[in-house]
Amino acid sequence: MEPASNALAVVAEGVREARNAARTDTGVLRIGLSWIEALGELQQPILSAYAEAYPETHLVFTLLDPGEQYHGLPGNVVDIALTRLPLDPEQCAWIELFADQRVVGVAVGNPVFDAPAVHVADIIDMPVPNIVLRTAAPSVLSYWMLDELRGEPGQRVGELIGSPTELAYTALHHSDLICAGPGTVRRYPPLPPSLLRFIDIVDGGTNCAVVACRRNERRPAVLRFCEMAKKVTRQLGRSLLPSGTTILGTSN
Q: Tens digit of pLDDT for each residue in 154-202?
């Protein structure tokens, strides 16, 4: 039995339980999705399980860049974010769903392109992309550009970049460029692996995928969504996510 094709069957019990719960809160639930595949194969099962359990709630999806993900909840742009840390801990609450190894994306021609894995020292002096966010979030850029490991901002190269596809093609023309990301990015790469690889950073630490909402959120639909995301992750995470992924379920 294929895990992905039977995802909803696995969470059927949770759906039945949810349908038996009180549903006092209908209307629209605005969900922010990351411009990278932050939750990998788990994202669609979470969305489908909630939609089946609460059909009276209309789900509206918005694709957000990392800066908008950071500010989207405090700014009331979205009600829920399926995203990656870091987020603003004073404005946002979240449940850590799972953690995986940070990876580095490199294009063909990069000195470490064929390496099975790298250490921070192997890549830390390489330039990073000149990413522009519609909403500034310096801590997000600093984290993914490895500035906190470098101790200073890395050398930015190339034209201003505003999407993963632009980033991928910029890397092809600046082969020494690197960009870190979550492990799930491997499953949905913007270019084939013969042109763009994502390599584990052995000592780069892990990163958490989260379901997040505004701190002190009390709306039942939002709280139910967070619980559904945690439940689906616990039931399906080990079968849908790559080996080495750590299933969590803890709140901040």
A: 999 888 887 888 889 999 999 999 999 999 998 888 899 999 999 999 9
Residue 9 has pLDDT above 80, yes or no: no
Q: Report the predicted TM-score, pTM, of the whole model to 2 decimal places.
A: 0.87
CATH at 16? 3.40.190.10
43-59 mean pLDDT = 96
Helix axes 43-53, 12-20, angle to 10 degrees: 40
Q: Which domain holds residue 49?
A: 4-99+207-251
* Cis-peptide into 86, omega within 30 deg: yes
